[in-house]
Amino acid sequence: MEEKEMTQRFYGSFEYMALMLEDVKKGFFTQNVNLLKENKKKLKEEIKERASFAEKVVAEEDKDAIQKKYIGLLVSFQEIVLSFDNLINKMKKKVEADILMTNKALAEIEELFNIMYAQFVDTRDYIATKNQHLRKEIKSSREKLIELAEKFDPIHQQRLITGICMPRASYIYIGITQSLKRISKGLADFSEKV
Question: Per 3-state DSSP, what percentage of the chain is helix, strand, and coil (rounded to 5)?
Fold first, then answer.
């Protein structure tokens, strides 16, 4: 495997997943469960395709430096994909069960999602360009997202205590914000290893 091939593989995956993220957001905010299901299926297909190639690389006995780097990047990539899958599951559950959330909760999720999406695109572009400004932005986005999520938690807790938010919605809200934080951390880890 050459560096160029490795870069193209990851760039392609991130490009494809960025398109999926747009659809997932649209499916969540428009209550379109079919769009969420369709993208969950696409994500599984992407995982299956990447896994078969990864198995071939791992099975080789004498790995060169690029193959070792690829395997190291797979761990971070796997965390991103698993968190993305979990995000879709939580969003799908909310839409299927028609669980209502406050406008405030939806606005907070949208704000966190937008930060994570920009970070995702920056990571995709960083893979191709190795632009250090993008790498700093990826790290900055992670810090901003985590800071905002930690700021939103007590506010959300207060909505739950006062009865504005229902426990079922709270469970979904926390699951979504946790998935977004894990994706964001995974993106930052990935960019450090590229």
Answer: 90, 0, 10
